[in-house]
Specification:
By secondary structure, the chain is α/β, with parallel strands linked by helices. It contains five helices and five strands. Helices cover about 40% and strands about 25% of the residues.
């Protein structure tokens, strides 16, 4: 069992993207009690609701809910939770006494902003500030560039300090 007020830094990467809003809410409630007063957490979660929920509303208005489900299945090929958005995460964090200080919505293996990286802290901590939210639809291209740099150093090894100029 993790003691209350004992976690300085928490990280969740590529697992909470599949968790629905109820699970995220319970996770944040626990996190709020486990973080130290100055603790922070970096959480990778779904933002698929940013496109899935509007598609559902449109399909309902068109009286074609099955079509909305089919469209969402094609848009959400990576099985992201489709009831979570960056904005909803922010509201859930606030309800748990956490402050979401940064959010980056990204296109993870998609053209759409289906994922989000959120940084949270306890309300009132020295890190507490208004949310800085950005939308990065070039994320996968950036990661491709990083992978290319990584593979070149993996095969040749790091350059000696004398070669760095």
């Amino acid at each position: 069992m993790v003691a209350d007020d004992s976690v300085d830094f928490a990280l969740s990467f590529d697992s909470l993207v599949h968790a629905d809003a109820g699970v995220i809410e319970a996770y944040l409630a626990q996190l709020a009690s486990k973080l130290t007063p100055e603790g922070i957490a970096f959480l990778h979660h779904s933002n698929a609701g940013s496109f899935a929920l509007p598609v559902r509303r449109w399909a309902k208005l068109a009286r074609a809910p099955a079509l909305g489900d089919r469209v969402n299945q094609r848009l959400n090929r990576n099985w992201r939770s489709d009831d979570m958005t960056a904005e909803r995460f922010n509201a859930l964090a606030a309800a748990c006494g956490l402050r979401c200080v940064a959010q980056e919505s990204v296109n993870w293996l998609s053209r759409l902003p289906n994922d989000c990286f959120s940084t949270v802290t306890r309300a009132g901590s020295r890190w507490d500030r208004p949310t800085r939210a950005v939308r990065n639809l070039g994320f996968m291209a950036e990661m491709g560039g990083c992978a290319g740099r990584q593979s070149s150093t993996a095969t040749t090894g790091p350059r000696p300090a004398s070669a760095i100029g």
